Amino acid sequence: MDNVFPLPRDLPAAAEPATEIVRQLRAAGHQTLLAGGCVRDLLLGQTPEDFDVATAALPEQVSALFRPTRQVGAQFGVVLVKRRRRWIEVATFRTDGPYLDGRRPVQVTPTDARHDALRRDFTVNGMFLDPLARQVIDYVGGRADLEARVIRAIGEPVARFDEDYLRLLRAVRFAARLGFPIEPATLAAIRSHAPTLAQVAAERVREELERMFLHPARQRAWGWLGDCGLLPYLWPGAGWQAAQIQRIDTLLGRLPAEAPFELTMAILLADRTPDDIERIARDLTLSNEQREMTMWLVAHQVDLDEPARPSLAELKRLMAQPAFAALHRLTAARYEDRPDADVRRNGLDARLRSIAPDTVQPEPFVRGDDLLQRGVAPGPAYKEILDALYTRQLDEVIRSRDEALAALEALLKERNP
Ligand code: ATP
Ligand code: MG
Question: For site-directed labelling of 126, which of 166, 234, 242, 388 has its Cα 20 to 30 A away?
Answer without folding.
Answer: 234
